[in-house]
User: Fold these one by one.
Assistant:
Number 1:
Amino acid sequence: MDSLELLEEHRLFNGWQQRYRHDSGSLNCAMTFSVYLPPTADDAPPPLLYWLSGLTCSDENFATKAGAQRVASELGLALVIPDTSPRGENVPNDEAYDLGQGAGFYLNATQPPWDRNYRMYQYISEELPELMHSHFNCNGRQAIAGHSMGGHGALVIGMRNAAQYSSISAFAPIVNPSQVPWGRKAFSAYLGDDETTWRAYDSCALIARPGPKVPVLIDQGDNDQFLADQLQPARLAELARQHDWPLTLRIQAGYDHSYYTIATFIEDHLRFHAAHLGL
Ligand SMILES: N[C@@H](CCC(=O)N[C@@H](CSC=O)C(=O)NCC(=O)O)C(=O)O
C-alpha cells in the first residue's frame, strides 16, 4: 500500500480537516491533498466528493475559502481536495499562470516536456480513488465537483467515468476548452496540434456521446469577468437539451468568478450530491 504522510490535522465541525503528502506514480512527483472527514466517518463510512480547483490554486483554496465543511459534516459527506497539477523543482513549469504548475487542466499530456508528469486525468480518476479506498473508511460511492478549470475537470472526468460518479457539479466551468483561449493554449502545449485529440477533454464534445448520463448542476455568476471569453456554459446547456442530458444551469445575478460565489452556493451543491449519493 502506498504510504501517506499526515502534514496537518484540525478538528472541524466535529470531524477532521487533514492534509497529506504522498508519492504519486501517475505524476512522478510528491503530491499534497486535503480531506475533510465528517464525524460519522468512524461508524458509517461516508461517500466521497472530489473537489477540483481552478488555475493558480492548490488544495488549500477550497479548504479555507469555500466554507463547505459545516454542511459536509451535517450530511456525512467526505471531501477530497487534490492539488491542480504536479509540483516540484523537477516538474516542468511556465512563467504564465495558465500553463504548467497550478494549471494541469485534468488531462494526460502527450507532448514533451509535459508528458512525464502532467497526467492529472489518471491521477484524479484512478490513483486518488484507489488511495482513498485503501487508506480511509469510505462506502465506495463518489461524486465530483469543481471550479473554472476544475469545473472543466469535473465535467470531463465525470462524463467519461459515469460508473464511478453519481453526480457532477461545477461553478463557472470552462465547458468548451477547445474553443476558448485558456483551453486552446493548454491543449496545444499538452496535447499537440491535432485538435481531434482534444475532444476527449471537452465536455461539449463528450455530451454528444452515447452512454449513461450523470446528472449535472452548474452555477454561473453573470458578473464573472471570464464569462464571455472563457466560459459560456450556455453552450453546454443547449447541447444537454439537444441530447436529453439532465443538466441544470443556474445564472446567479451579480456574482463573479471568486470563491465568494462558491461560498454562497456550495451548500446547494453538497445537498445535490448528497441526494444522488443516497445520503
Ligand atoms: N489572472 C488571475 C487568474 C487566476 C484565477 O482567477 N484563478 C481562479 C480560478 S480561474 C480558472 O480556473 C481561482 O480560483 N483563484 C484562486 C482563488 O482563491 O480565488 C490571477 O492570476 O490571479
Number 2:
Amino acid sequence: MSAEPIIRIRDLKTAYGSHVVHEHLDLDIRRGEIIGIIGPSGCGKSVLLRAIVGLKQPAAGSIEVFGERLEKLDPDERRTLERRWGVMFQDGALFSNLTVRENVMVPMKEHTSLGPQLRTELADMKIRLAGLEPDAGLKYPSDLSGGMRKRAALARALALDPELLFLDEPTAGLDPITAAGFDTLVRQLQKSLGLTVFLVTHDVDTLYATCDRIAVLGEKHVLAVGTIDELRKVDHPWVQEYFGGPRGRAATGH
Ligand SMILES: Nc1ncnc2c1ncn2[C@@H]1O[C@H](COP(=O)(O)OP(=O)(O)OP(=O)(O)O)[C@@H](O)[C@H]1O
C-alpha cells in the first residue's frame, strides 16, 4: 500500500438547503484497501459517496481523488478521471429496458471507442467475473433475482476496469447466504484486480468478512476510523453499541 491516499477528504461540508449533512469531515482512503463506511441511517453515507464521485457539490472543503480535485478539471480531464472508478448504487440502478449485457456496455459506449463486437465480448467477460452465468447477459433486470441483479450492477461497475470501486449497500435486501456469496466475490475481486473499495453498508457480517478498515460516520463527520479491533476500543456510545451489541457479538461469535 502506498502512503499517498487514493481519496483525500479535508474539512468537507455538504448541505441541502439549510440542512447540513457533513461538516468538518476528514477522511483518507488508502490504495488497495476495502474500507467500510457505517453509521446511523441518514448520517450521510450515500451523500459522501455522491460527493466523492462528483454527483453532489460540496459546500466547502476539498476532495481529492487520485490526487486531483474534480471541480478543478476541465470536462475532458474529468471524464478521463471518471473512467478510473466504478459505482454500484444502492438500488443497482440498472436500465430496465436494457438486457444485462447492454447495461454493462453502457459505460463502454460512453467512455470508449470500442466497436460492438469487442464491447460484447468484454461485457460478457465482466458478467462472468461478477459470478453470473453467461446467459444472464441476455436477460432483463426484471427476469433476475435480487442477488443476480446486484451482480449485474457489479458487472456494470467493473465495465471500464476501474481502480476504485464504490459500492452502496451491496448486500441490502439479500438473504444471508447470497449476501455472504457477494462478500466473498468482492474480496476476491479486490485481491485479483488490486481494487480499492469504498463500501457503504449496514451489514455487520459484510464488515467482518471484507473490510480492512471501517469509518464510522455520525454527528456530521467521521467519528472514528480503524480496524474492527481498534473501533471496539472507541469510547463512543453508538460505536460501542454497534460492535458490542448483540449484532456485533453475533458476527464475531463472542
Ligand atoms: N437529494 C436530497 N435532497 C435533500 N436531502 C437529501 C437528499 N439526499 C440526501 N438527503 C439528506 O441527507 C441526509 C443523508 O442522507 P444519506 O442518504 O447520505 O444517508 P445514509 O447515511 O446513506 O442513510 P441510509 O443508511 O438510511 O441509507 C439525510 O438527512 C437525507 O434526508
Number 3:
Amino acid sequence: MQQNTPTIEQLRARIDGIDDQIVALLNERSRVVLEVGRLKSGSNMDFHVPGRERQIYERLLNVNPGPFPNDALRSVYREIISASLSLESPMKVAFLGPKATFSHLATMQQFGLSAELVPLKSIPAVFEEVEKEKALYGVVPVENSTEGVISHTLDMFVDSGLKITAEILLEVHHDLLSRTGRLEDVKKVYSHVQPIAQCRQWLEDNLPGIPVVDVASTAVAAQIVSEDYSAAAIASELAATLYDLKVVRSRIEDQVNNFTRFLVVSRKGCERSGNDKTSVLFSVKDEPGILFRMLEPFAKRGINLSKIESRPFKKKAWEYIFFLDLFGHSSDPQVAEALEELRLCCQFLKILGSYPRSM
Ligand SMILES: O=C(O)C(=O)C[C@]1(C(=O)O)C=C[C@@H](O)C=C1
C-alpha cells in the first residue's frame, strides 16, 4: 500500500501537466472567441453579450461536479470572459468613483480585470460619459437592502435615453481599517453616511464615545486615514489594499445579508437571455382606481413584479412617477401585451431596458 502512495513531487508533476492542458485550452478558446469577434465586426453586432455570459455561467455551475467550488468557478470564468472580450474589442466602463468604493467592486465583479474601468465623480457624470460615447457602459448603485433606493439614480432615467443592460448584486461587507491595525489606537472614525448607519451598533459596542465623521465616500475616508495614525475608516477590503491600511476588524456591519444592487447602463438594449428582468418608468393619469388598473395587466398574465417605487415628478407638483421591475423580457409576447395595456392608463411610459437577472 505504502509504496503506491505518490510523492509530493509526483503529484506536483501531475498538477503541472494539468495546468499545461488548461493553458492550451484557454488559448484554443481564445482563438474561437477571436473568430466570433471577426463575425461580429463583419455584421455590426455587439461584442459584449450579457445574456450569453449568463447562459455560460448558468450552464457551468450546473455541470460542475466539484470539488472545485462554484463561487471560484464563477470568478475564474469572469476573468476568462473579461479577457476574451478584451481580445475581441477593448471595453471602457465608467463607474461612480472614487476607486475602492463598492461601485468599483461591483464593476470588477461584472466586467473582470481586463476592462478599462474609469472612476467618475457623480452619478450624472457616469450617465454623461456613456451618452457622449466616451464609455460603452456605466455602473451606478440603485438600492441597498438595508437603506433603500438611491433616488438620484432613479431620477436620472427620467431624462436620459440610456438603457439598463445588466444588474449587479453585491454582498456588502464593511471593514474597520487603520494604519496600525489596533483597535485601541482608534480615536476617530471616518466613513460615508450609509456604512456608518449600517455599522451603528458595532460602533456603539466596540468604540463607545469615539467621534464618527461622515465624508463623501468610503475611499475618501480611507485616504484621510492613510495619513492619520489615530483614525480608522469603515471601508471595503479593496480600500485596505489601495490605501495601504490594515484591517482592524472585518465584517462589522450590523445586518448580515446586506446587498447593494447596481445597474449597468449603455446606449443599446440587451437581447433576451431567457431569464430576464425589465424595468419601466411611467406616470399614470389621475383617475379613480388607477393604482389597481396599472397592476392588473401583470396580475392577469401571471407576470411577477419584483419592485415598485414611486417618486415625486419634479416637473409637476403632486404628480408621481413609478419605477417598476418585472420578470421577463420586453420582447416576450406576454410582457409586451401587458406593457401595451399599461400604456393605456399612462401619461407616459418608458421602457428602461430588459436585462439578464443577476445570479
Ligand atoms: O459568444 C460571444 O458572443 C462572445 O463574444 C464570446 C464571449 C465568451 O468569452 O464566451 C465573450 C464575450 C461576450 O460577452 C459573450 C461571450
Number 4:
Amino acid sequence: MAQAGTSRRDLLKGLGIGVGAGVASVIGAGQVAAAPMVGDAPKADADTSAQRVPFYGAHQAGIVNPRPAAGIIASFDIVATDLDQFETMMKLLTARIAFLTAGGAVAMRDPKLPPEDSGILGPDIAPDNLTVTVGLGDSFFEKTDWGKALKPNALDRMTQFPNDALDAALCHGDLSLQFCANTPDTAIHALRDIMKSLSEYLVMNWMMPGDVPQAKPAADGTTPSARNLLGFRDGSGNPDSTDEAKMRQVVWVTPENGEPGWALGGSYQVVRLIRNKVEHWDRTPLQEQERDFGRRKISGAPLDGGPNATERDVPDYSKDPEGKVTSFLSHIRRANPRTPETEANLILRRPFNYTSGALKNGQIDQGLIFICYQADLGMGFITVQSRLNGEAMEEYFKPFGGGYFFVLPGVSGPGDYLGSTLVSAARSL
Ligand SMILES: C=CC1=C(C)c2cc3[nH]c(cc4nc(cc5[nH]c(cc1n2)c(C)c5CCC(=O)O)C(CCC(=O)O)=C4C)c(C)c3C=C
Ligand SMILES: [Fe+2]
C-alpha cells in the first residue's frame, strides 16, 4: 500500500505524468522529476561538498584562505594542565581535525553503543571546505609554570575598551576553535564531534555561529567583498591574503617578532562579539552612514573616488588634510590613516555576521563576529582599536564579548600534532 502523503507524486512519477505546470519537470526519456515536498532538503546550486582545504602546512588553515559561508567561534576551558595530559589532548584534537577536514565514511558500531557520529551529515563526511583553527588563551598559559615561561610575549587577557559592555560569560577562554565551512551543518557537526571526542579535556565557555553572505562574481570574474549587516561591503581594505610576503609581515610570527621559538608560524587571534544597533542604523540617512564609515554603501568605494570608483580604489588622505571628504571620525580613516608609520598596524580581518534572536529591549540581536589575525597583538588590533575609540560608528556598535588567543603553528604532516613545538619547549625547560 502506498504511504499517505507520498502516494500521489509516486503514482504520477510511475506513470511519467507531472503534477502540474511548474511543479514537476521531465528529466529524461519517460522520467518525470517528482514535485518537491515541503520536507525535501533544499537543492544546492552546485555541489561544493568535495572542496578541501589542506590541513598540513607551516601555518594552520582558516586564516589566509577565503572565508566560506559558515563559521563558528567557540571558547573552552581546558581541564588538563599536566603536560602529558595536554600532549594527549592535542594529539587527539589533531587527529579529529585531520579526519573531519579530509572527510570519510563513519565507522558503524554495535547498535547497543552510542553511534560513532552524530549522524547529522549522514554516513559519509564530506570535507565541505572545513577548517578548524586552534588558539590558546592567556588563562591557559597562566595556569602552569611552564605555561608562564613560554607564553607569547604580547598575549594578555582582553581588556575593556571605552565603548565596550563586556559580558563575563562571553569572554576569554583557555582554547579557541574557529570553524569555517561551506555549510553551517558541517561546522556544527565538527564542533559536536570535537566536543564528544575530547569531553574529558574541554568544557565549553561560549560559542557564536555566524555567516558570510554569498555574492555573485562580477563580469570580470572577481568577487566583491561580502556585505555586513549594516549593508556595507566589509573586507575592501584588507591586505592581500594571497601575497605571501605581506602575510609574513602582517599575520605570521617570524623571528623578527622576538617571540619564543616554539611560536614561529603562529599568529595572534582577536575575537570581538560586536552588536550592531540595526534599528537605529536603518533610520540613519544614507549620507551619514557613508560619512561615518568613509565609503559608499552600494559600491564600497572610498568617498574621494569618482562616480566609477570601486571598493578596490585606495583613498588618498594626503589630498584631504582637513578631513572634509573623509571625516577624521570615520571608521576607515581612524582604522587605517594610511601613513608610512601606520603600515606597521595592519591586521587581517576575517569576520562573520551573526544573528541571535531578540534582545530583551525588543530589538534584533545582530552584529559582527569580528575576528582578526596579526603577528603582533599590540601593534595590530590593540593599536587599531585604540585609534577607533571615539569614532562616529560607536553610536551603532556595542562590543559585548570575545578574547585574545594565540593560534598555534601548523602541523607539518601525519607524524606531527598541534602544539608539538610548545610541548617540546616545555620539556626542555
Ligand atoms: C579594531 C579593529 C576593528 C574593529 C573592531 C572593526 C569593527 C567593525 N568594522 C565594521 C565594518 C567595516 N570595517 C571596515 C574597514 C576596516 N575596519 C578595520 C578595523 C576594525 N573594524 C580596518 C583596519 C579596516 C580597513 C580600513 C582601511 O584599510 O581602509 C569597512 C570598510 C570596508 C573594508 O575595508 O573592509 C567596513 C564596512 C563593522 C560593521 C564593525 C563592527 C561591528
Ligand atoms: Fe571595521
